[in-house]
């Protein structure tokens, strides 16, 4: 299986993902790895209903998402993985869902410690989790939409 994009976006499935990232990455499978949404039947069904036909949707716990992505049965899929937080991304990575790069797209917090651009706010836990992912070899970048230039998160963090 090919993970074509791993993204932290606390809005999960929304227009920016469907209209910009799926065409840009040519993903044919969208995986939402989040324990809370996986347990909310109505919310889960509404999210899945928003995805165009032809795109497989998997909304599962972080552990089940890791198992799905790493299964050899799904080798033909081009997977776009969405996490609601850096904590979910770290948990997934350590559960076997590996990705070389993590895109920070949207992380809105009412009282974040670090405002990185207009769409990403990090608190102390976020920074610690991103540092742990980075120490495991994951490149962390900020990029809201595909036409934006990728920025290394540390360079942006230093500027603040």
From TrEMBL:
GO terms for molecular function: kinase activity; protein-N(PI)-phosphohistidine-sugar phosphotransferase activity. Signal peptide: none annotated. SUPFAM superfamilies: PTS IIb component. Pfam families: PTSIIB_sorb. Keywords: Cytoplasm, Kinase, Phosphotransferase system, Sugar transport, Transferase, Transport. GO terms for biological process: phosphoenolpyruvate-dependent sugar phosphotransferase system. Coiled coil: none annotated. Its main location: cytoplasm. Residues 1-160 form the PTS EIIB type-4 domain. GO terms for cellular component: cytoplasm. It is found in: Cytoplasm. The keyword Kinase applies. This is Phosphotransferase system, mannose-type, protein IIB.
